[in-house]
Design goal:
Helix content: 25-40%
Structural class: alpha+beta
Distance between the termini: 29 Å
Length: 140
């Protein structure tokens, strides 16, 4: 069975939205929620966002969030905080099966295109291998 992969560099802030400028509470951005649901993956997005911002610079890991239904459906998040990064950049990788390819591609592009920073976007096969080899199981 073929799988299709997407990799993008965006700010972690592009995964959440804030109700307004005066309240610190945030919630998962709808476009990211639809993307992760399209590959049957559960991620505690707000918790991950808050933990990322509290972590010291020059720290962080790659996390794998896998679908319980299909092993080729997963999301990778590289949450390493580079000491010179002032934009809170992360790498987001998505893998999906052929049957879901068109929908996942549409949603991945939406997340990337809505990002305030268009730095890097790749599509292909086997582009997530190195990232997946370094991954730990996702935070809950």
């Amino acid at each position: 069975m073929s799988n299709y992969q997407f990799l993008m560099t965006i700010s972690i802030s592009d995964l959440v939205e804030f109700e307004d400028d005066f309240i610190d509470a945030c919630y998962e951005k709808e476009s990211f929620k639809q993307l992760r649901e399209s590959v049957d993956v559960s991620i505690p997005t707000v918790k991950m966002y808050e933990e990322y911002l509290e972590a010291p610079v020059d720290s962080g890991d790659v996390y794998l969030y896998a679908s319980k239904e299909e092993s080729l459906n997963y999301i990778l998040l590289d949450l390493y905080r580079d000491p010179y990064d002032q934009l809170d950049l992360i790498r987001l990788g998505i893998s999906t099966i052929e049957e879901k390819y068109k929908r996942v591609k549409e949603l991945a592009r939406r997340v990337y295109d809505q990002s305030g920073l268009n730095i890097n976007y790749l599509e292909g096969q086997f582009i997530l291998k190195e990232m997946k080899d370094r991954a730990r199981s996702g935070l809950n």
